[in-house]
Amino acid sequence: MTERRYDPVTGEWRMFAGHRQDRTFLPADDFCPLCPTREGHPPTEIPLPAFDVVVFENRFPSLSRRPPAPAVVGSELYPVAPSAGANEVVVYSDDHHLSLGDMDVERIAKVVEVWADRYAKLGSRDEVAYVFIFENRGVAVGVTLHHPHGQMYAYPEIPPRAKRKLDVARAHHETHGTCVYCDVVAREQSDEVRVVAGNTSFLAFVPFAARFPYEVQIATRRHAPSLLELTDPERRSLAEILQTVVRAYDRLFGFPLPYVMSMHQAPTDDGEHQHVSHLHIEFTPLHRTAEKLKYLAGSELGAGAFINDVAPEDAAARLRAVQGT
Length: 325
What we know:
The chain is an alpha+beta fold. The chain folds into 2 domains: 1-23 and 64-83, no CATH class; 51-59 and 85-324, HIT family, subunit A (2-Layer Sandwich). Helices cover 26% and strands 20% of the residues. The chain has 6 helices and 12 strands. Strand 8 (195-198) and strand 9 form a beta hairpin. Helix 1 (105-123) crosses helix 4. The chain starts with a strand and ends with a helix.
């Protein structure tokens, strides 16, 4: 079963992919499918003895260029559609243990270039409306492979959370005549208390109304709708601040902090969102202390109302403090 079903109560499309139950789950290091294929070892997904950055189609996709027909027949109340789109894997390095925080800026910059290239190429496809770049890191967030990698989902419509943020941004622009995220960046630069790090092109900060205790957002200081609008120096600046933030996370509790990294940028199906799309990256770690996780429970999952245990100003101060250690 691979299909998309529409929920008439929420107005959201959901993906179903039964074959993903059989995907590789936390294999031993010697059997990692994302490592290079080396002599005397089983072949992996990457038939190369060494590499810098590799992109390939996910073997267990939720979305694909030529999806099968849905297993059920839809109706006016319950529309059903093929799972058209793309799922790609981005392997950051041939080193099984090299995370973003361990990489030098030059290597991270190569990853940024790959993100930009695939965003453009996937976004140019007729069936794709939104390209979502993300990374799941750590067992706590459900990762199934430890080798440092990220993913790209190319959706046939703007996914729910991205659509809600764009709708809010459009309403803000209609009322105030400004990009809401430009206003947020200006306020965080002015207040300073929630800033984690910054450079000439980017600002990293804990959001004023953060959902997770150590959530961090990285945003362009100027209005840039997507990776494609960044200059070469700005792309390098992005690599620099990504390294800074992930290293701070790794020092916060003395271990590689599990997180979900989510990149938000302009939809790719038209140009109508350019003025309200502001490139930013969200890091959402689940830990609230070294030993305790922030679980999504009744208020979060049932009502969608987040409760945070740590003041954003305190979280930012702690993340700033560990950068010098």
